[in-house]
Design a protein that fits this description.
By secondary structure, this protein is an alpha/beta fold. Helix 8 crosses helix 11 and helix 9 packs across helix 14.
Length: 374
Amino acid sequence: MNLKKFIVNTVMLKAIEKIIKLSLLWLVAVIWPKRELPSLPLDISKIRNLLIYRPEKIGDLLMALPLISVLKRENPSLLIDAIISPVALPLIDSDPRFNKIFLYSKKLWADLMTAAGTRKTKYDIIIDLVGSDSATAAMTVLYISKKSAFTVSVGKQSLARYYGRNFAIYPYRHMTESTLQPLSLFGITAGPSDCYSPPAIDNRMYHNAEKFFANLNLKNSDRLIGLNISAGNKNRRWPDENNIELIKQIGRTFPELKPVIFAAPDDFGRARILAEKSEIDTVVIPEGLNIREVSAIITKMSIFVSPDTSLIHIARALHIPVVGMYIPYNENYRRWGPLSQKYGILVAPGDDAIDKILPSTVINEIRKVLADQV
């Protein structure tokens, strides 16, 4: 099969799949129609069970944590369940803010069982935080609601009519602010501090982080700069030679900063090689840590440098200043960049990969970010 025919067939199959899903959504909406919201504001003290639907990447779920934290603060007895993707489970496993966690695996039978399991709970409100039209999300939410739960969404367009209330995504504001909009249903106005909500880091994780740094024999004058070398997409990975040059320039420009390399499990070999070639004292974080244990390590950083990954959001949730590297696609860096920073966003120059961002450019941005913290 030639490439042109393959593309045509793929487009046709996706179009057919979309038609089938929309038809099923229409049928589900007939059987379990949305419940219209009553007069607002709702009394949050009377809400007992709430479900968050966010089965996407770790960074996407991180955007939901501020909303969940405020809801729990305003009603400590509120039971919050969540439907998430398996990859995001380590982020909120054993998190006291959550009651039950259900996994959406993109496997039909398993996900039908998940939906059936969540349906056993009578939810007062279901909030769909998938920030785009998703027939699967809409069907799932309506099915679980059983015509009794109020359904709320963020970022829907053509499918907004299937929800009791939809909030549009702010085009040029941080995604956290868009995700906090459902608080208005309860008459709650989120303040700037409400945007910061890190993962749940327990005492054991803090202790292990302290133990790791104690073994480094740091001087009192030493500060730490985190350098994340990993990213899920190839176009978000900075070349190794750039990382090596950056570490060398850090040694010359900021001798008080000790580099700490952060890496995903598959990149620890690269991390060790980079540390060896850096020519200055550079350490690599321990292997085998989960995302919350990594977060405990991040708490010790004075500044954090990373491609566009979830670690940027974790660092900012912990009030650690960040320099992030982004591709220019769709200006997503405006919504997913470092939260509430004047500086720290580096956008690749006219390309769909970050490899053309120079180490010297990163150094200059580090200087700006550090100066802005004084």
